[in-house]
Amino acid sequence: MLQNELEGYKIILASGSPRRQQYFKALGLKFEVRLKTIDEIYPEQLKGHEISDYLSELKASIFKDELHPKEILITSDTVVWHNNMSLAKAANNDEAYQMLRRLSNDLHEVITSVTFTTTEKQLTVHGITEVKFKDLSDDEIWFYINTYKPFDKAGAYGIQEWIGLIGIEHIKGGYPNVVGLPTHLVYKTLNEMVA
Questions:
Q1: Is 138 a known active-site residue?
Q2: Mean pLDDT of 69-86
């Protein structure tokens, strides 16, 4: 079991996301949360998973000098990719409305990259899930925004919240990835790193 393989290692999760932290607990992993902020700016020529890979690795870069042997730093980033454009976190109600109006009655991809950094190596993996929203009414969009304030989420929505329950017609790929962590890849990669 992975928990036994990780004996002697210290996992550091550099994410304030309660959803990611909950998934780590559900995987049975012991971890410490360390938080630092960084401007999430990326070269504009990047597309899709290149953006989330870059930002996940950027988030790791500010911790590199303080890692000790047997520590595994885990950083991540989620991107909503729609019509060749990345939808980041909404700054306000109007931005959230515009994002959800764009996603309504269409397909998009949710891409979550996870970077594993030690004193010796760095490895980045990503999961991609296709999501299809029904045709959302303005009343539904505004109810969701005003009730749930989804400003901490890429694409201005959380699949686990009301909008996901009433609005998502189908997904192709991993559900946890849309919530914010490709759990199967985290489990697989950690196993490989400590094997």
A1: no
A2: 97
